[in-house]
């Protein structure tokens, strides 16, 4: 079997998850190179995962690694630049959320990928998380009648890495980091139905010393098809990751919980190594997660993209979808700034989405 | 022991719960009379519960029954009239939610009670529900640090009684029926902190044929103390009653679920009599609730009011609290009509709260 | 109302629960006196709960307190003596589990109570715990068809009080302390069906330094009606009280969990005062119980007995039932000693039940 | 990549799961042939799964299919014969539980495999189920201190296929079908510690018309290391598959539930296609399982065996382990027949294990 050569940009938290997914579940792909700005970090990562090449220069990686796919796990503000460089070199691209910091970047990324005839997949793993996908199949089978409300939330106590808290690097707070998941998943559940309006409330309640970004938010999204969706996101929720959805239809309801709802339940007087993402402690009661990457859909997502590359298919979630999510995020920040719901389509010229809120606070 | 004499107005669903509470948990009270418009219903109810007197005329009950307390379990549109009649006759009053249909009614009810020196308790049982109260104590003990978000929702598939669906009798839909619980509970949790704004989205998704009232809604309430509260209410959620809260603080989180979170979990091939409020079926899996009135706080609530009457104390939840909830409801309907958050204090001259939405839909 | 006068013997953990039950839920009873061997403890307890009289002499309490009911919350080895003294003085008796240490004691207690024409209730609160009672009603309504298996377990990390660990005072380990609950409840569920055999395995796994009593056990009880019952009991289970049952029938199944299955779920970075019985910590995740006495059925149990006394009824659970439980316990210890199931009826002459195991270990 | 060629014997329920596992998760294996006694069934199965060859003659399959591995998913009574034929032809063997009907068969299977130098893996998927494996890692990391009790149970309402109910084909009832899982998993958790004794109770409570085999049982296994293990198994439990374990140590406890504890929770008025294994209905509330094969460990198990074959490793679970399980089963039936615990090692000459119970009932 001829394996598809993948180069990964980034060597942080999410990259570990991608590597695990490739190595355990996607033998048809081969991670041939890794990039990190810090050469020591790049080298250590490559050694840890037996990746043959490491780089601390993106252009050099693109030129020399022999990769066909670039998997971008970089901080938000580097997304557009890396995508454009890779696309111009004819590499297929899968990129972590959010697609970009600004709509202008998103538009350029999409355009350059199209012009260079490379695939651009927006890596929204919730569109592949098996419990959520099972729920979606039930909906499509009519199990809950006609949908009228969706809820999804992702919450924890805040990222470990510094750049997330610098809004110039991230473009915003928890909505940029985790709200994008809800928005991507709502559109996925609704076959990319049009959003008609967004309302959002947000605040910085826990990490005030560390960031101007919002660390707690609620968004209400109205869709043309009549469905209302509620996204809750927080960097101020303690006790580990929370990732849940609720699906309401005229014929029933589905509750799916990816973390507490899958976990073994453990009481340990002394504690143990690791309970789940962002759990502060494993002493006392804890919810012990297993197959964490698999249950969030990372292997399914990456395997799908490798299949798209190998068999020339269109990814199920594209740059356009990432762009649509970013537009909703813009509208959400604008809504919080204005105190009213914002109609879509929406656009604004800003250096970063969160300015639409901060400048009107 | 000299027992406090109570007359109950109404003989429907909620009256059963009040009677159970008096009979099992409040021996210091004695239900001496019941009123229902339909004399057969009044008589049957009195016989069923061994209540010595029944009436189909409120004035006559007030004049003749010898009651000291009137417990009002009537449809919304009769609240003000019954309260005023009882107050003028010197009776203490405990009244089911919502306090009234309009703010003008509410103001008059409060004024008349004050003028006649009778107590007026707004019967928000969630302020007494023992699991919720346990959670409130934890909050007050600092278990979760500083609150920043509260969520509460009450959902089922819709009332059994017709008048709820007639907005001229009810004043609105699920917000008038169940949203008031969330609003009353938020204020209770926050020591009646001032509300600064309300945003609401609502729709009629399931009972379109039956009512103009909203049957699904989300409200976001911002408080002066910085706390954001989210109320979800639905008459379109199947599978039985859902009554849950989530409490978020800078030092932790509390989840409390009054129905599924208390229930025995049952699988019955043939089904059985009753699983929980509004459960459509008990065949297959069901969540079997127990001590349903107690777990919702009805006995605690009524016992508290009888204690207020016997020992001349001020109720923990008053007509003013009911009026404050109604003001938020007005603002919620206005918000849904305007598509923006509405600042409080808020007032409007309308025949019924829902007009603030329907007239601007 | 003429209130029934109750004297309580004992001032420990379980007495607090009885007092709370009388004071909040049983106004028709009045606790007039408390006994503790230590006069300071008796006095402090009386003051804490506004009990008018305290004694450190049981005979004096019986003679002088004016009580009609004696509620015995003493260590196991004092049960028989206290019961017999109270019965001879014409007092009605409710006694905490287990009924006595030996079958001879049990027989004498029953005989003396009968001779003196006083009621003797065996206080098995699980026969009154509302969630379990709800489950029993479902069974009686046919919700799960014909029963074929019952399971019940009570587990925590061990009693706080020293005498439990001294088998001369307790008569045994966790089976004497908590296994009796399962056995009492099985008989209650099965309308006191005859037990045909018992098998038990047991060991001392955690408190080896502190006791010769078993701190972990499994009992399998076979009933004449074909039902098999499994009791699991432990003093070696960490993380707080566990009290669960499972009910299997040819038409369905019921799961009921009195602690984790009722609790609010809390994450507290700093911890808080109290989560549930025997929880070692409230830091991190905890299961926050509410209305703990009520949910275990103590108020219902004691109210029932007061009603029996006031209205001359036979208690639902009697000394004979306690004696039957003790007989099963004897057989369980004998089974563990013999490595085979033991047929009932069973009797043996021993100083304490656990000897039937220890002497054959 | 040179793929390992696998032939599957059997075309029933479990074969579907094996095929899904190979196709989705084990690209290094290739299913080249399937056998079923009924040629139509074999052909249909091969077509459904795009398997190139089908056979209704085992010898022919072995001789002609070119397989290196034979994966045996046949009824119990065919295990030994198929294994021996395959081994003699030099094929590596992975075999579904139980290893065989009799100890003599088991011994011969092991001997023939050894003589022919082929690998024999006993396919106990619970040794690979990811949630259980996560729990085992915690135990090994000391999260719960020293183990003293293990519990595991597997329960549903009975197999769909007829041969299970014929004890001449199956060798017994639910213990042969599902009790073997618990026994295999206990040994796995305890590093194959020696069993010192077994006690079992069993009965036929639900399928009396259909089988002489036990359909409900409890086994208590004592290990040399002092750990007590309790296995509960049932073909009489309604509402879908139940597969749970509880792990008790001196420093904590772990609860892991593979079905209800992983599922999405759904209410569907109309029902939908499939909720989980053996769920009778999906109307009303149901527990919707996802990635059912993966969560039970089938892909991990089969992938492990293919790795053993490709890289000449010894399987983690071998024929000897399957034989040890069968010995415990013998002892369990003998125990139920004798009403006492049976010491191991144990052997008996019987046509089928269940005779040890039935002949002494």
UniProtKB/TrEMBL annotation, chains A, B, C, D:
The keyword Oxidoreductase applies. InterPro entries: Gfo/Idh/MocA-like_OxRdtase_N, GFO_IDH_MocA-like_dom, NAD(P)-bd_dom_sf. Residues 5-122 form the Gfo/Idh/MocA-like oxidoreductase N-terminal domain. The keyword Zinc-finger does not apply. Residues 132-254 form the GFO/IDH/MocA-like oxidoreductase domain. Keywords: Oxidoreductase. Gene3D superfamilies: Dihydrodipicolinate Reductase, domain 2 (3.30.360.10), NAD(P)-binding Rossmann-like Domain (3.40.50.720). Belongs to the Gfo/Idh/MocA family. This is Gfo/Idh/MocA family oxidoreductase. It comes from Mucilaginibacter sabulilitoris.
């Amino acid at each position: 079997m001829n394996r598809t050569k993948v180069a990964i940009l980034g060597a942080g938290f999410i990259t570990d998850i991608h590597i695990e997914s490739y190595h355990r579940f996607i033998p048809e792909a081969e991670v041939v190179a890794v990039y990190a700005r810090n050469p020591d970090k790049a080298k250590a990562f490559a050694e840890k995962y037996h990746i043959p090449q490491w780089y601390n220069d993106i252009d050099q990686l693109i030129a020399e690694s022999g990769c066909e796919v670039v998997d971008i796990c970089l901080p938000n503000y580097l997304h557009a630049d890396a995508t454009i460089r890779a696309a111009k070199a004819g590499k297929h691209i899968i990129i972590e959320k959010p697609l970009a910091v600004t709509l202008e970047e998103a538009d350029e990324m999409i355009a350059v990928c199209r012009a260079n005839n490379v695939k651009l997949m927006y890596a929204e793993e919730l569109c592949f998380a098996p419990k959520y996908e099972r729920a979606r199949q039930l909906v499509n089978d009519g199990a809950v009648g006609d949908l009228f409300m969706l809820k999804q939330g992702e919450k924890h106590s805040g990222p470990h890495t510094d750049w997330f808290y610098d809004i110039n690097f991230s473009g915003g707070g928890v909505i940029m980091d985790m709200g994008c998941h809800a928005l991507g998943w709502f559109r996925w559940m609704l076959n990319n139905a049009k959003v008609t309006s967004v309302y959002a409330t947000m605040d910085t309640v826990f990490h005030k010393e560390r960031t101007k970004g919002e660390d707690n938010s609620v968004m209400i999204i109205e869709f043309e098809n009549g469905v209302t969706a509620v996204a809750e996101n927080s960097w101020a929720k303690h006790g580990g990751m929370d990732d849940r959805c609720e699906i309401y239809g005229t014929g029933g309801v589905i509750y799916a919980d990816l973390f507490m709802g899958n976990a073994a339940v453990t009481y340990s007087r002394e504690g143990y190594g690791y309970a789940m993402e962002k759990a502060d402690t494993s002493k006392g009661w804890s919810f012990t997660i297993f197959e964490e990457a698999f249950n969030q859909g990372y292997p399914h997502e990456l395997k799908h993209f490798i299949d798209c590359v190998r068999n020339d298919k269109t990814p199920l979630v594209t740059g356009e979808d990432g762009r649509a999510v970013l537009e909703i995020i813009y509208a959400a920040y604008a809504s919080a700034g204005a105190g009213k719901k914002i109609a879509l389509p929406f656009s604004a010229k800003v250096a970063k989405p969160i300015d639409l809120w901060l400048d009107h606070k």
